[in-house]
Specification:
Elements (H helix, E strand, L loop, with lengths): L1 E8 L4 E5 L4 E6 L19 E6 L6 E6 L5 E5 L7 E6 L3 E6 L8 H13 L4 E5 L7 H17 L2 E4 L8 H8 L2 E6 L6 H8 L25 E4 L4 E5 L21 H4 L19 H4 L7 H11 L8
């Protein structure tokens, strides 16, 4: 038997990278369910697994999925009660966002950050395509940069086209296993190609009709990079639905709310209608109005993404 790490999942077959440097195509035998989790994918990219070669073949069977250090998950798009594990055993999760070409809403950003907080994965926001922004868009970017950095998040402004910010981006990846995600068309593959020219990932174009990207990645895949470490490249995500969240704990996933919620009059304050709520009193000051609105939307399961 051998052990390795899942670097690609296509639904029925999994590419497993062994310590020897060899990659083996593996499959699951029968039904494999993880205790306490109903998912559309029992095996995720980043999983550490134990395999056994099939007799007389170069393929193998996955016998065991080792306990995960962590994972990041979202609500499955086709099964309302199921979830989809995007990746496991991560050191950090990076959301590539764009002010325009296409637009990434703050609602989408905040749902990603809330999910990362819930699963204790350090999150980073990278705003790409800064070379394309006019003054109004640049001002919007500066505003978001100030707000998110004041909360405590790492935020980078980069351009895959002209190279701005790429040195800092590369340093961020060095020696770590990093999830890179975001909408289609925000430039994830272009950024990875700039960091490691040997990968030559396929990049896509933006639809002129909808200002949205076209999918170039079909399945999540994990790549070793020349600065040391791994990048998990994901298919462009249209939605980031929250999975299995309890309303009473949601505010704890907003760091700026978490730091003052103990000052509310009521211990079970929902920060919606109660009097003497420290969070409502901090609006437009310590807490940005759009972050609070996104909190309310999540409480109501409203993911219309107007912000």
């Amino acid at each position: 038997m051998d052990e390795g790490i899942v670097i690609k999942s296509t639904g029925s077959w999994y590419s497993v990278y062994l310590s020897s440097g060899k990659t083996v195509q593996c499959r699951l035998r029968g039904q494999y369910r993880l205790k306490g989790i109903r998912t559309t994918n029992p095996v995720a990219v980043g999983d550490k697994v134990q395999i056994r070669y099939e007799e007389g073949r170069e393929t193998a069977i996955i016998l065991l999925i080792h306990e995960r250090q962590n994972f990041i998950i979202r609500k499955a798009t086709n099964l309302s009660k199921a979830s989809h594990i995007i990746a496991a055993n991560l050191d950090q999760a990076i959301l590539v966002a764009t002010i325009d070409h296409p637009r990434t809403s703050t609602g989408f950003i905040d749902r990603f950050l809330v999910t990362s907080e819930a699963y204790h994965i350090p999150a980073v926001i990278i705003f790409n395509k800064t070379d394309l922004y006019d003054k109004e868009q640049s001002d919007k970017l500066d505003q978001l940069y100030t707000i998110y950095t004041s909360i405590g998040y790492k935020v980078l402004k980069v351009s895959a086209l002209n190279g701005n910010g790429l040195t800092e981006f590369g340093a961020l990846l060095k020696g770590k296993t990093t999830l890179l995600t975001g909408h289609s068309g925000v430039g994830k593959s272009a950024l990875i190609n700039k960091i490691d020219v040997n990968l030559k990932l396929r990049t896509g174009e933006i639809s002129s009709v909808h200002n949205k990207g076209k999918h170039t990645t079909t399945f999540a895949e994990m790549y070793p990079i020349n600065v040391g470490g791994w990048i998990v490249d994901t298919p462009g995500i249209k939605e980031f639905g929250l999975h299995d969240f309890e309303a009473e704990t949601l505010a704890q996933r907003f760091p700026e709310m978490r730091s003052i919620m103990h000052l509310c009059r009521f211990a079970n304050c929902t920060h919606v209608h109660e009097p003497d709520c420290a969070i409502k009193q901090a609006l437009q000051g310590r807490i940005a109005g759009f972050r609070y609105q996104n909190y309310l939307n999540m409480m109501n399961n409203d993911f219309t993404d107007e912000n």
